[in-house]
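This section describes the prediction task in plain terms. A model, or a person checking by hand, is given the sequence of a single protein chain and must write out its three-dimensional structure as a string of tokens. No templates, partner chains or ligands are provided. The sample shown here is typical of the held-out split.
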Amino acid sequence: MWSLPCPPLESEGQASYALPMTTRLLSHPASLDHVTPPGHPERVDRLRIVNKILSHPHFAELDRKEAPVGRDDEIALAHTEDHIRAIRLASPDPDQEWEQLDPDTWMSPGSLEAALRGVGAAVAGVDAVFTSETDNAFCAIRPPGHHAESRRAMGFCLFNNAAIAALHARVSHNAERVAVVDFDVHHGNGTQDIFWSDRDLFYGSTHQMPLYPGTGAVAETGVGNIFNAPLRAGDGSDRFREAMRTVILPALDAFGPDLVVISAGFDAHRSDPLGSLELTEEDFVWATLYIMEMADKHAEGRVVSVLEGGYDLAALASSVGVHVQALMRGTGDLERIEIEEEEEDESDG
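The expected answer:
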């Protein structure tokens, strides 16, 4: 059995809410059709286990919607036309297995629709929070997006869902300032690239360094809108929370966003095979609630969380579970969840 912990949180002025939040879950079965080669860490089983944990009765109150197909004009908010065209041209024919875009990034015949549904989920989440259909949203999608730069796919990512969501908020909902906060173990070089020269876009990241993709130094500041708080291998709760308290959250508070997008990567978990940080589920809840507090202060509570990394299945399931419970309840007083462990299906990567 896998257990979802009930993490006690320190008070520290932590936000709490008198009523549960309304949380929209955006997903689509097409996300399972993005198939990677055997042994690839960004595999179908990741989303299967996320779907399994979110099917538990504790998540019955989620407002579940299918993600629409993202449009090219939405993708073009963050990516060049050449990039969009290249991804479409690289999409394999149905009788092909894969197309390799770089050493880490692959497409199968189902990858294009999966990526378009990921864009559609992020955009629909933004629309829902700005029209008050929901308080916040979680996008259970793959492939991830935060490594995709304006002109190239990389690091498992085809389109940058978080950046597209932020830019969509400006174009379609007159948001003046939009923030992305990223706690994936890997630096979101793509989001940083897209936001680099725009003072009304904020990117704040905690990540392990040195580690792929090699960006994310403190000195990388854009036009005063980029805030990197790199951590070292072996760093755990104390260093992570210090980085959030002293760098990311004060900068986010000063920025005053109209929307906060979370690049919710859970590969900073101590069990993850692709990183060497020592975070636990409690840290993800802690960060989620403080980000929600900033959104409550500046953005009428508007938060859209987009799944990024997380490659140990048990850790991913438990981390997503507590993250979504925090979004739903606005509290660290979470309930224990147990799910039956299943063997990984190696047939589809």
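For orientation: Residues 1-13 have pLDDT under 50 and may be disordered.
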